[in-house]
């Protein structure tokens, strides 16, 4: 399976830049999710790779072959790019059986009847619909229809699979099951997959790499856990994670080697850096980023006592809102626990994964541990 290279890819609609100078290399057998809020350019990027949308400027290379180049005046049609497309709407032929839906494209490609029969059986076994081949789409559940659409897409053995929110029509339980199936499928067929979603959980659980876009501009491109632990800026840190990262405005009071004293609203914190990516000096305006699961609550009250504002227990975990002086934190407490509203708890920071961002540029300055200072 090939790698996909996007060079300086730009798409404008009138005065609006849907995709702005995107450089991206999707390696052989990667499962890359294009993630971001509505209107960020992820579907436009997918459509440009497929050939359904013509870029304004740039170059697209699939498997070493230039399929689009604004400079060289190359623009191969979708059928010549050897890509498989799977969209939110499964678009199954209602008057055809499952077998006929899967075989339809192969017949158009002039495959022999025996080759088609063998390939349909392979696809039926692969996506576990062998017992449904004689049924019509109206006789299938949403998940079964999705499997048929996947089988139909895979049948011609395309070099690249392009998927645009294919699970969004399914209910939550079925989406979870289909995510697991897609991940298994990716390993078995060893394909290169580009997958559009606005669901961060889907992106994180499926992808080998996540491409996060905002207003057509690439914000970060990295493996899911790298994006989660090392967001390049505030947008990435805020978009990834549920509940969202806590952000606390602060001013740098003092810098001493790998330590900095930070003054927030009625709270003084000391950060001990394990990594630094920018200059820091006294007087700088910064933002501290704390993941909710990296904040601990303890029954003992003390100097750093917070007040429980609200709790949302779900069995596996409880999401807590707690206030210390004038600062509100979202906290995740794991396990079957709950807390009394307005009760007092001690708050602490046991992790080394707290982040510091520049307030003006929104870019990450460093990461490290945190503790209260009197």
In short:
By secondary structure, this protein is an alpha+beta fold. The chain has helices at residues 42-50, 98-108, 113-126, 142-154, 172-189, 200-206, 224-229, 234-239, and strands spanning 4-13, 16-26, 31-35, 57-62, 65-69, 74-75, 83-86, 160-164, 192-197, 209-214, 217-222, 246-256, 259-264, 267-276, 285-290, 296-298, 305-313, 317-324, 327-334, 344-348, 354-358, 364-372.
Number of strands: 22
* Percent of sequence in beta strands: 35-45%
Query: Can you tell me the CATH superfamily of the largest domain?
Result: P-loop containing nucleotide triphosphate hydrolases
The helical percent reads 10-25%
The number of helices is 8
Spatial ordering of strands, largest sheet: 7-8-9-3-10-11
Q: Averaging pLDDT over every residue, what do you get?
A: 92
Run of helices and strands: EEEHEEEEHHHEHEHEEHHEEEEEEEEEEE
- Structural class computed from helices and strand pairing: alpha+beta
Note the main attributes of this structure:
OB fold (Dihydrolipoamide Acetyltransferase, E2P); alpha+beta; 22% helix; 374 residues; single chain; 39% strand; 8 helices
């Amino acid at each position: 399976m090939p790698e996909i290279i996007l060079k300086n890819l730009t798409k404008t609609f009138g005065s609006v830049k849907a995709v702005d100078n995107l450089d991206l290399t999707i390696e052989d057998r990667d499962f890359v999710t294009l993630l971001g809020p509505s209107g960020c350019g992820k579907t436009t990027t997918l459509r440009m790779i497929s050939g359904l949308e013509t870029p304004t400027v740039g170059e697209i290379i699939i498997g070493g072959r230039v399929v689009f180049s604004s400079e060289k005046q190359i623009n191969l049609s979708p059928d010549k790019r050897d890509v498989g497309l799977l969209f939110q709407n499964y678009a199954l032929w209602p008057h055809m059986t499952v077998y006929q839906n899967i075989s339809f494209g192969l017949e158009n490609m002039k495959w022999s009847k025996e080759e088609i029969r063998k390939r349909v059986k392979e696809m039926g076994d692969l996506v576990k619909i062998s017992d449904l081949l004689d049924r019509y789409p109206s006789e299938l559940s949403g998940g079964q229809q999705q499997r048929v659409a996947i089988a139909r897409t895979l049948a011609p053995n395309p070099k690249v699979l392009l998927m645009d929110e294919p699970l969004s029509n399914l209910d939550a339980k079925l989406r979870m099951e289909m995510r697991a199936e897609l991940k298994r499928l990716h390993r078995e067929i060893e394909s290169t997959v580009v997958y559009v979603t606005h669901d961060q959980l889907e992106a994180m659980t499926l992808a080998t790499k996540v491409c996060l876009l905002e207003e057509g501009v690439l914000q970060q491109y990295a493996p899911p856990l790298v994006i989660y632990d090392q967001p390049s800026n505030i947008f990435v840190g805020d978009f990834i994670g549920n509940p969202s990262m806590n952000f606390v405005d602060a001013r740098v009071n003092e810098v001493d080697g790998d330590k900095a004293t930070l003054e927030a609203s009625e709270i003084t914190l000391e950060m001990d850096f394990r990594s630094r990516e920018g200059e820091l000096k006294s007087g700088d305006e910064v933002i501290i980023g704390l993941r909710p699961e990296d904040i601990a609550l303890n029954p003992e009250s003390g100097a750093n006592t917070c007040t429980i504002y609200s709790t949302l227990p779900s069995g596996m975990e409880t999401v807590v809102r707690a206030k210390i002086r004038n600062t509100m934190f979202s906290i995740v407490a794991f396990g079957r626990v709950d807390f009394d509203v307005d009760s007092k708890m001690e708050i602490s920071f046991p992790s080394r994964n707290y982040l510091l961002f520049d307030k003006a540029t929104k870019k990450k300055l460093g990461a490290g541990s945190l503790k209260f200072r009197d």
